[in-house]
Amino acid sequence: MTAPDLWRLRGSPGARDEFVIKTTAVVLYAAVYLAFDWLRVSHALPGPGLALWNPLPAFGLVLLLAQGLRCAPVPFVVGLLSDWAVGGAPAGIAEPLLANALAAAALTVFAALLRPNLPDDDAFGNLADIARFLAISILVALALAGLAAAAPIVTGALPPAGVLVAVRQVSLGDLAAVLGLVPAIMGIPAARLRWNKIAPSTGLRDIALFSSGLAVSLVVIGTMEAYSEPHFFYLMFLPVVWIAARQGLAWAAIAVLLAQVALVATVARFGSGREDVLAFQIFLLTIAFTGLIIGSAVTERHRAETALRRQQAELARMGRITTAGALGLAVVHQISQPLATIATYTHASRRLLQSGSADRDLVVESMAKAEAEVQRAGLIIERMREFTARGKKSVTAVNLGALAREIAEALGDDARRAGVRLRVAAPPVPSVTADRIQIEQVLVNLVRNAIEAGAALPTGKATVRIMLASRGEEVEVAVEDQGPGIPPEAAASLFEPFETSKANGMGLGLWLSRELVEGNGGRLWYDPGRKGGARFVFRLPRRGQDVL
Questions:
Q1: Considering only CA atoms, which of 54, 63, 185 is closest in space to residue 124?
Q2: Which spans in 357-435 are helix H?
Q3: What is the separation, in whole angstroms, between the first and last Cα of the chain?
Q4: Residue-wise over 341-376: b if at least 16 C-beta within 10 A, else e?
Q5: SS3 391
Q6: Which helix (H) or strand (E) holds 182?
Q7: CA distances (Å), 239 to each of 207, 213, 256, 287, 406, in order?
Q8: Which residues, 6+ apart, have CB-to-CB distance to 269 below 8 Å?
Q9: In angstroms, rounded to a whole number, what is the distance separating the alpha carbons of residues 469 and 539?
Q10: Residue 246 CB neighbour total at 10 angstroms
């Protein structure tokens, strides 16, 4: 960020807030950088420029990721200042200028590569993001180490033969710190979000167990006086892997950082030989790779589970909406039948009264039939409401033969107007256990469909038959017509909702009829065995049998 940029940020209140945030971030970065550079120099391992864990490039990368690429000059300026304040005034200006300029340029390039892959609510989105971060981090470390070695080579301070050794030593320390610091700092918002999603007791318990596991591993190492034995530090894997598997990437990143700091502090406190540095650096890298990959896999699983729950909730909501819509259409479908009959009877009564020579008994009969249809419509609505409440049925003993004759009489006028003969073959059969109104609606639906199918034939040639028979522990009712029949390709979807071959049909009659029959413990199906017409059959359990 240049001085004019900072000056322009002093405008509006929002801009002033941004100015304060960026200024605070730059000052904090400079203070932390100088402090850690002093520690790095004062606790350097044997050998020029060798550091077990070098967080300085990681701090610069975090600054650029968090505050934007306009802060690119800051790592250069702070690095140059640190060379003078911590390392003492160098003999020449060329080497520190070149080294810090190359390092700042490399950080800027790799921050530009990482920034587009950082979501708003998390440091890394999924396994692909963490894999990309690991790959870019390796490139960052190698590039920084190579550029750090290039400056002294150019100035003659380092012979070319020592380049590979210097790059290896520097890159591993830089890479370990980048993998430890960057995900932990950038993942703080995600860690807080994860904390808000779990119970406080669970979070405190997991933190306590992780801290205890890390402390126990260090106590074991201290008790065995294994400070310079890198393989003993692999005990620290257990708490890191455990917290990663429990809470995901954000907490795993913090756990990795704490484990790295604990190891570096232990080595700095008790010392280590130069020959052990490579082994310790490999351990730092291994624990970072393991914790981050396991954490990202667990976080991705958490996201998948959350997405699945949301999808299931949405499907359930859409199912309820669909059911409500189907129920509304089903009510319309069922009520339209008695309403049409009511309209017919009331219209006939009005015409009789307007004629002036009305037969009183005929008018009374028509109005009585209209009243009966009104009552039936009310019962249909009540039964439909109870049907949707799951299990609420008015189960009684139903005489299907008497019911079939009542329906044939009620629909007789409709059949005559359509030119269809309506016949009932109802020998004595046992009563069934069912909801009478619901079974009545099933029969009305099937008989009306048969009448409409027979109406397509020449007047007087179509016959609709309602036939009853006893079939073991069930009573069978069949409704057959002599209409055009059902094409084979349409038979498979007959009972699907909203499937209809009628121009003005809603496709709910057969679907609802099957639902009602099955709700009363029976079965309804289409029988294509006879030639011509259609035949629908349903069976219900005899009285005394179990009703599902």
A1: 185
A2: 360-388, 400-410, 412-417
A3: 76
A4: bbebbeebbeebeeeeeeeeeebeebeebbeebeeb
A5: coil
A6: helix 163-186
A7: 10, 5, 10, 11, 78
A8: 227
A9: 9
A10: 18
DSSP 8-class letter at 285: H
Q: Position 22: which residue type?
A: K
Helix (H, G, I), strand (E, B) or coil at 152: helix
Would you say 124 and 303 are in contact if contact means Cβ atoms under 8 Å apart? no
Q: How, if at all, do strands 462-471 and 523-526 pair?
A: unpaired
- The secondary structure element, H or E, covering residue 127 is helix 127-155
Residue 174 parent element (H or E) = helix 163-186
Eight-class DSSP state of 227: T
Instruction: Tell me the two tokens of residue 247.
Output: 């809470």
Q: What is the mean pLDDT of residues 366-391?
A: 69
C-beta of residue 53 within 8 angstroms of C-beta of residue 173? yes
Distances in whole angstroms, Cα of residue 332 to Cα of each of 320, 377, 385, 505: 18, 11, 13, 11
Per mean pLDDT, which range of 210-224, 235-249, 284-298, 445-459 is the poorest? 445-459
Can you tell me whether residue 228 is helix, strand or coil?
coil
Q: What share of the chain is helix, strand, coil (3-state, %, to 5)?
A: 70, 10, 25
Give the largest CA-CA distance in the chain: 130
Asked if pLDDT for residue 119 goes beyond 60, the answer is no
Sign of CA dihedral 311, 314, 318, 323: positive
Q: Which two tokens stand for residue 15?
A: 């801009």
Say whether pLDDT at 13 is over 60: no
Q: Is the whole-model pTM more than 0.90?
A: no
The answer to whether residues 429 and 469 touch, using CB atoms and an 8 Å cutoff, is yes
Q: What digits encode the pLDDT tens for the residues 197-210? A: 888 899 999 999 99
CA distance 540 to 475: 5
Return the amino acid letter for 92. G
d(CA 434, CA 443): 13
Strand partners, 536: 479, 526
Cβ contact 471:442 at 8 Å: no
Alpha helices in 43-93 (DSSP H): 56-67, 73-85
H-helix or E-strand spanning residue 477: strand 474-480
Between CA 107 and CA 112, with CA 111 as vertex, the angle to 5 degrees is 120
C-alpha angle 348/353/354, rounded to 5°? 95
As given in the structure block, the two tokens for residue 365 are 């009969």
Nearest-angstrom CA–CA distance, 432 and 393: 14
Confidence of residue 391 (pLDDT cuts 50, 70, 90): very low
